[in-house]
Amino acid sequence: YLKKLKNPVIISAGPWSRGHKGIRAALNSGAAAVVTETIVAEPYPDLSPRYAYDGRGLQNIRMYSALDMEDWIEEFKQLKKEGRNAEDGLIIANITAGTPSELAYLARKFEKAGVDALELGLACPMGEGMEIVAANPNKTYAFTKEVVENVSIPVMVKLTQSMNNLTEVVASIEKAGASGITAINTMRCILGINVETGDPILPTYGGYSGSPIRPLGLATVAGIAQSTELPIFGIGGVENYQNVLEYIMLGASAAEVGTAILVNGYGIIPKMLADLEGWMKKHHITSLEEARGTS
């Protein structure tokens, strides 16, 4: 699976990867893969405003894609109709559900729709239910195993930093037959309060992302790498090539970029890749595998 990745930069799940137009823009950036916005069987209406950025971190109160399962299948059909280039990266569907059987149902649907891999979102920071799944080894095993047994494409499991039993959860994912782990998801937050009105910047809890969570992402990836040989995709505050290398040096095989795209656009991806190539030449490295796990 990892051999199919043309470089170590992946576009993470988010509104920037909604629908065939968002996926095409991500693929055109040169990234090795794009993860879709989180897909559920029955989404709720979109919210506005749903983002707040304070110059460092971003709060997002949008849990899932506003497109439902059938909408997404049509989007994948449109993408297939437009054609995929030989140099295109992989398409990974991020899916979540309330039960193992529902998650497996979505997995089968999107495997049939032509995605290359799946990322299971078991740690949504906006609600309590899915967060409990990601922090519970038995539930994580049940959800993951059900999906793995129902598809033939690779299955990644996305984890949160908010757990005190990381080793046990990682072991359950490995036992269930997953192909890899991605970490970390956004962190539950309230970005701030207007002290003149008493109103929060956004009306409810949300997921916090961007550079402030990078130290937490790095620590979690390091912990996962010490617990398993499964491939790891590091997420959290990736803004430049140095951040990609930080995750790789702690044991990740690739790093996912999200908030930086929302803030700066897809132009940061070609720059990251060029800078990585320059770093490799400077250090006489022919493959970033030589740098993986060196810290």
For the biggest sheet, the summary is: 8 strands, parallel, barrel
Q: What's the assembly state of these chains?
A: single chain
Q: What structural class should be given to the helix and strand makeup?
A: alpha/beta
Mean pLDDT: 90
pLDDT < 50 runs, ≥5 residues: none
- Estimate what percentage of residues fall within beta strands: 15-25%
Task: Describe the overall structure.
- The chain is α/β, with parallel strands linked by helices and 295 residues long.
- It is 38% helix and 17% strand.
- Strands 1-2-5-6-7-8-11-12 form an eight-stranded parallel barrel, surrounded by eight helices. A four-stranded antiparallel beta sheet has the order 3-4-10-9, with no helix packed on it.
- Helix 3 (100-113) links the parallel strand 5 (90-95) and strand 6.
- Helix 1 (19-28) packs across helix 2, helix 3 runs parallel beside helix 5 and helix 8 (241-249) crosses helix 10.
- The protein is globular and about 55 Å long.
- The model has no long low-confidence stretch (mean pLDDT 90).
Offer a quick outline of the entry.
The chain has ten helices and twelve strands. With 295 residues, it is of the alpha/beta class.
Summarize the SSE layout with pairings.
Layout: E1 9-11, H1 19-28, E2 33-35, E3 51-53, E4 57-60, H2 69-82, E5 90-95, H3 100-113, E6 117-121, H4 128-135, H5 137-148, E7 155-159, H6 166-176, E8 180-183, E9 187-189, E10 206-210, H7 214-225, E11 232-235, H8 241-249, E12 254-257, H9 259-264, H10 268-282
Parallel strand pairs: 1-2, 1-12, 2-5, 5-6, 6-7, 7-8, 8-11, 11-12
Antiparallel strand pairs: 3-4, 4-10, 9-10
Helix pairs in contact: 1-2, 2-3, 3-5, 4-5, 5-6, 8-10
